[in-house]
Amino acid sequence: MTRKILPCTAVLFLFAACATPPPQGPMIDDTSFYLGRFDKVWEVTMKVLERKSLEVKDSSREKGEITTKFVNYSVGAKAHHELEKIAEKPELRLGLYTQVGYSVTIRLAAINEMSTQVKITADIEAYDTNVTKKWQPCKSKGVIERELLEKIRDSL
């Protein structure tokens, strides 16, 4: 009897392990709602970008969209390690990153007369000097997005 229970228990554990969902990555908090008219939030957002020295590449108030130019986050030997502060490294074996930069896209939408939704997306890239000698896209950890959203909130 005990001989049958042990294999059955082992099989049960295997099925249970296979049935569990894979762990999800960290949630990126890239959206905030502000108590403020669209026009006011737009102006504050533009001022926050100016204070952060993020030059606007394209903007459309009608569409509620702002895109910044690419800006360097880190350059040189320290860039390889500083990349981990804001993004996950690309899955590139033996990649060596000597430059990290990003641009942001900000989408504003009026929810009603007195509230506005702001969503920020950071497009982060790292330059690999070892394997591909090309810019590699990186998955954001939400650090840049949260920082900008907090600065907008503090300025309203």
Walk me through the structure.
The structure is a single chain. The chain is built from four helices and eight strands. Helix 2 (38-51) packs across helix 4. 25% of the residues are buried. The chain starts with a helix and ends with a helix. It is elongated. It has 156 residues and is α+β, with helices and mostly antiparallel strands. It has helices spanning 2-19, 38-51, 79-86, 143-155; strands spanning 31-35, 56-60, 65-68, 71-75, 87-88, 97-112, 115-128, 135-140. Residues 11-27 have low confidence and may be disordered. Strands 1, 2, 3, 4, 5, 6, 7 and 8 form an eight-stranded antiparallel sheet that branches. Strand 7 (115-128) and strand 8 form a beta hairpin.
Q: Calculate the terminal CA-CA distance, rounded to whole Å.
A: 71 Å
- Helix proportion: 25-40%
Instruction: Give the oligomeric state of the chains in this entry, treating copies of one chain as homo and distinct chains as hetero.
Output: single chain
Element order, helices and strands? HEHEEEHEEEEH
User: Which overall shape is indicated by the principal axes computed on the Cα atoms?
Assistant: elongated
Query: Which value, in Å, is the CA radius of gyration?
Result: 22 Å
Q: Helical stretch count? A: 4
**Main beta sheet strand tally, sense and closure:** 8 strands, antiparallel
Judged by helices, strands and strand pairing, the structural class is: alpha+beta
**Residue share in β-strands:** 35-45%
Which residue ranges are poorly predicted, with pLDDT under 50 across at least 5 consecutive positions? 11-27
